[in-house]
Structure formats: structure tokens, C-alpha cells
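It is worth pausing here to work through a concrete case rather than discussing structure prediction in the abstract. The textbook approach is simple: state the sequence, then state the predicted structure, then interpret. We follow exactly that order.
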Amino acid sequence: MTQATELPRYGPTSNLPDSNSTFGGAAYLRDLFGSDPAAALARLADDVVWIVPGDPAFGGGTHKGREEVVQFFGSVLGLFPEGLAIEWLREWHGEAGCLVEAVLSGTTTAGHAYRNDYVFMLEVEAGQIQRVREYADTSYAEAVLNKQAN
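Step two, the predicted structure:
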């Protein structure tokens, strides 16, 4: 079983604020993509579901359970050896979680630039992430990552 602490630290975060809410989505993403991925992964419920539209070859699909989500992150983030930088744009809060709009950028292992807009919808219960829906321009992501595969 893959442990959360096995994920490497990825990328600088540029401007993610600390959040005053019970669950700060921006702070969570800052931890996940940079400052403390192990702490971020520890906030996942054991039965978390992370949904990503797109080609399964590039991380698309429904990832169920902490172990599968950790493997998903390891495989996707492994495509960016220098990490992914995250630029926070907006965050909205509600009783059941939050939405975070951000831009992720980096350089693939093949040297191709990547910069894509994302929206993360995080559903939270008792401080644990139960479900995440991740939205991005999957056609763009697949085109850049296909260059890598060729």
C-alpha cells in the first residue's frame, strides 16, 4: 500500500492565501502541490472519490479510496519533474465544502510547457475530504501530454 508520506513535494505555490473557513480549499491545494502533501493527503477520507474527466491514460476517471487517489497523484505529478506551480484565483465556501479556481503550470518530462485553468470542487464532512471533482481543459492537457508520449 502506498503511504501518503511517499509522495514527493511538488512545485512552488505562488499566491495561495490562508483561509479563515473551517476548510480552506486554497490552503489544502497549497499543501497538496507544495508545502505539505502528506498533510493534505491525510485529510482525505478513507473512501474518498476523486473524479477527473478525460482520458484514463492521463489520469482521467473516477479514483476511489485513499490508496487509488495517492497512486493517481503519483502518476500524474510524475509527469512534471520540476513540479506544478499553482496560482490561486478564487475560492467559494458553502456548508458542504468549497470551490477553488486556480491555474496549474509546469514543464513535462519531455520539456513541454503546461498551463491550464482548473476548478476543484471539494466536498467535506467532519474535516475530511469525501469527494473531489476536478475540472480543466482536458483536450489541452491531453494534447500536451500526448507530445510527451510520442
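Step three, interpretation. The first helix runs from residue 25 to 35. The first strand starts at residue 44 and ends at 52.
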